[in-house]
Amino acid sequence: MHKPNKLVAFIPMLVVLGIYGSAFAVFVIASFRAGMPDGRIDNSVLGWHNYRRFFETAAATDTLLDTFLISFLLTVITLVLAFPFAYQITRTQSSAIRRILLGVVMVTFLSGGITRAYAWMVVLGNNGLINRVLAELGFGRLPLLYNLNGVVTALVHFLLPFCILTLIGTFQTLPRNLEEAATSLGASRLRTFWLVTVPLTLRGAVGAGILTLSVAVSSFLFPLLLGGGKVRMMSNHIYELIFINFDIPFAAATAVIFLLTTIILVSLLTFVLGALTNDSRWSAAR
Predict the structure, then answer these.
(1) Distance (Å, rounded) from C-alpha 195 to C-alpha 172?
(2) CA-CA 20 to 30 A from 177: which of 34, 118, 130, 210?
(3) How far, in Å, CA of 262 to CA of 217, rounded?
(4) Percent of the chain's residues with pLDDT above 70
(5) Are 134 and 141 contacting, i.e. CB atoms less than 8 angstroms apart?
(6) How far apart are CA 39 and CA 56, in angstroms?
(7) What span, in angstroms and rounded, lies between the C-alpha atoms of 98 and 226?
(8) What is the DSSP string of 150-206?
(9) Predicted pLDDT of residue 200
């Protein structure tokens, strides 16, 4: 029998890349064209005018900056919450508790994004659960909806499962005897966690953070529904350019700039944080 050609295994990947690549190529070509008032593309115009327009438009550059700032904030909050949760799942001695905690994480995947968004609107609204409880306790109502508070809350809830599941794999590869050795030498559990566990799992934390950041920057639904038009990210901005302004060439240029900026930023973060984690692991090993 002939052994299967190794190139055959790459055919599905090449098909997917070809489909997405061709669609993106069409978008790139459109970014050099001009838009017409009726929404059509003027193919007789060719140039960099849409890219210059992007950097000359304050709304576009401000939205790009806000997108990355909000995404960094989301990544930090998600990592802070996910790190101890994932650690507890992998280190708990009770299999029942472990299953319950994993179930809490996995159950979020059983509902769609729209369902979760509207659920958060009910919880965070002016007459929602949280504000009703605050009112009953004699406190004032908090503006939790149609602002950054609501968007961050809903997106952290959306991003947590991805981050937790990534960190679980990291903690499972960390030998427990290293933590037990530190404890036997007199270190408290908290000291062991900060001086042994955290440095040795930083590489996994960086991977989880990069994944979280990559998902966060492409957020569309939660800023749209819970932001109330006050919190706009690049996906929302591109959507408006296409379906409200009907300016496809400018939307294409905006999308290309957004994608290239994201790739460059994630690559730089991966390189810098990877170097820092290598130093941390070396310091912990010493």
Answers:
(1) 18
(2) 210
(3) 8
(4) 94
(5) yes
(6) 22
(7) 33
(8) HHHHHHHHHHHHHHHHHHHHHHHTS-HHHHHHHHHTT--HHHHIIIIIHHHTHHHHH
(9) 83
